[in-house]
Amino acid sequence: MFIHPLSDVKSEQIGLGTKIWQYVIILEKAKIGNNCNINAHCFLENDVELGNNVTVKCGVYIWNGLRIEDDVFIGPNVTFTNDIYPRSKKYPSSYPKTIISKGASIGANSTLLCGISVGKYSLIGAGSVVTKDIMPYSICYGNPCTFKGYICACGTPLLGGDEIFTCKKCNCRYQKRDGILTSLGNL
To answer: Is there a single domain that holds both residue 186 and residue 98?
Structure first.
């Protein structure tokens, strides 16, 4: 584990191989997995959990209530929220849970409202405003963030029709049922 001497890390729940760079503040109860990379000028509150292999780029604040699963990429200056009706000096008794699922990627300068779920291996384009759940393997972007297509776990846009989608790079296949994409494995 590497913790830059110019950071302020109070938590002892930090996994092996994790790197924490300068000017990062991590509060005492935050939980961080193995092999994470938390870039400069980030802040992690107490009720925060990061899985393994998470990348948090510069300028990201991770507030109480966020759950970030394994292999997630959070681009620079992504903004999370955790209070739907904020007021100065008024604190809710609990914070809505926001779930960023395994393998998801969130582009730079996106804003995510609290209490939503971002599906596994989905991709949110830079500058998006996310107000609703994002389905697994979805490509979404814009203001408001809207569905634009499907993406493979390897990061390649999927080709296909109504029910079956295929990745031209890794040959993975996916099936859509009731509007949700699930992996069928390789060809």
So the answer is: no
For residue 43, the enclosing domain spans: 2-151
Cα gap 138→124, rounded to integer Å: 8
Kindly give, in sequence order, each residue whose CB lies less than 8 Å from that of residue 5, ignoring residues fewer than 6 positions away: none
**CA distance linking residue 93 with residue 91, whole number of Å:** 7
8-9 sheet: strands from edge to edge: 8-9, 25-26, 43-44, 61-62, 79-80, 111-112, 129-130
Cα distance between residue 15 and residue 102, in whole Å: 17
Of the candidates 127, 116, 112, 107, which has an alpha carbon nearest to the alpha carbon of residue 55? 107
Are the CB atoms for 156 and 162 separated by under 8 Å? no
Q: Pick from 169, 179, 132: which is nearest to 187 by CA?
A: 169
Query: What is the pairing mode between strands 172-177 and 164-166?
Result: antiparallel
Per-residue pLDDT of 69-107, as tens digits, reads 999 999 999 999 999 999 999 999 999 999 999 999 999
Residues 52 and 116 grouped into a single domain:
yes
Which pTM was predicted?
0.95
Looking at the fold, whether 112 and 20 belong to one and the same domain comes out as yes
Instruction: Give the CATH number of the domain where residue 138 resides.
Output: 2.160.10.10
